[in-house]
Amino acid sequence: MNNDILEWILERSLEAYDAENKSTDKIRERISFLVSMAFTPCLAISAYLISSLKGDLFSNENLFYFWVPIVFTIVLIISSACYVGYVLLSGFKYSRIPSPSHIIEYINKHPDQSVVLYDAQIGLLNQISQSVDENYKTNQHRKSKLLSAQRLAFYAFIALFFCIPRWVYDFINFETRPQPIKIILPIKVTQDNNMTTQQTQKQPEPSSTQNQQQTTNQLKSQEKPSFPQRTMALDSANNIDKPIFPTRSFALESYDPKIKVDKK
Fold this sequence. Notes:
mainly alpha; about 65% helix; about 260 residues; 6 helices
């Protein structure tokens, strides 16, 4: 094979290999788009419609026009999520071409250096072509399952729209009814604070003359304290008693308490 032809085929093969790698990244982006733009809104809207439904929940009209589409919506969303889980979590294998370190090791171990470049190019071309074929099959299989998940999510939105008119009709025509209230605890009659204040204000207040008599009697009954007496201070330094200087003491080196100490 001519070297120019071989180089051209290698370039086209590397472009195809890169295209399959980009296709794998696009599959991941489509999975995140389905989760954020299809599953989450559809489930949130379904939960809101169910929780805020007015009127008789299980009447014949609500069963047919509301609950049947809601059940279809939930079933379709779960089926679509199963496809997405299969595409995301099944552990598909992708082929990778040899790294440059392995190619250099092959070149160094080649016995004939005159044809080593040609053999290396042929070997790399074979590995790239096999990797492209295997990755293409894997990506196509994942894309087909992901396409089924997208269709089911779209059908789920259509089923969800069918139950909205019935929800709007129940919301508009719903009438609140008075609910009976049962009193279990006995009613306790408590006296109002205004009543107590009025009663206290009506009590007769003592007159001023009576208050004066009470204060005078209290003053008479109390005993007067005695006035403090004077003290004498001596203005002389000679007559002040001087303290006695302490004298010496004796210590006996004996353990018998009967022995007395002779002071000299």
